[in-house]
């Protein structure tokens, strides 16, 4: 089955570790490239060309992005509002221990 691609580009991400060992992550986006839409601190693009999940993942990587990951209900609703409720590949995959992870390296925290 071939689905359309929804890519997410992380605009700017900087991790800062304090002297106490605490890690703080700061996200901000100055702009999104032409054709991309900003949602929170990330940029998204919807590709209407049908392709397999592996091809979609590779296509996003070629754009410097990942298949989209959805971390909050708000983000999910905003993406649907912007791009419609069309079928699309997103970047979730099952790890070796049966846990699900996003292609950006984060664990599933929203369902």
From TrEMBL:
Annotated keywords: Signal
Pfam families reported for this sequence: Lectin_C
Sequence ranges assigned to domain C-type lectin in this UniProt record: 39-111
Keyword Protein biosynthesis carried by entry: no
This protein's record includes keyword Ligase: no
SUPFAM superfamilies (UniProt xref): C-type lectin-like
Alphabetized InterPro entries for the sequence: C-type_lectin-like, C-type_lectin-like/link_sf, C-type_lectin/snaclec_domain, CTDL_fold
Xref: Gene3D superfamilies: Mannose-Binding Protein A, subunit A
Domain of life: Eukaryota
Signal sequence, start to end: 1-19
PANTHER family: MANNOSE, PHOSPHOLIPASE, LECTIN RECEPTOR RELATED
Name this protein carries in UniProt: C-type lectin domain-containing protein
Organism: Oreochromis aureus (Israeli tilapia)
Originating gene: LOC120435924
């Amino acid at each position: 089955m071939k689905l359309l691609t929804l890519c997410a580009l992380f605009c700017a991400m900087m991790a800062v570790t304090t002297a106490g060992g605490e890690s703080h992550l700061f996200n901000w986006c100055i702009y999104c490239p032409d054709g991309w839409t900003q949602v929170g601190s990330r940029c998204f693009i919807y590709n209407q060309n049908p392709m397999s999940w592996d091809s979609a993942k590779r296509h996003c990587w070629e754009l410097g992005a990942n298949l989209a990951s959805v971390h909050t209900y708000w983000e999910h609703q905003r993406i649907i509002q912007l791009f419609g409720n069309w079928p699309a590949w997103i970047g979730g995959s099952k790890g070796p221990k049966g846990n699900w992870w996003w292609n950006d390296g984060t664990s599933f925290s929203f369902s």
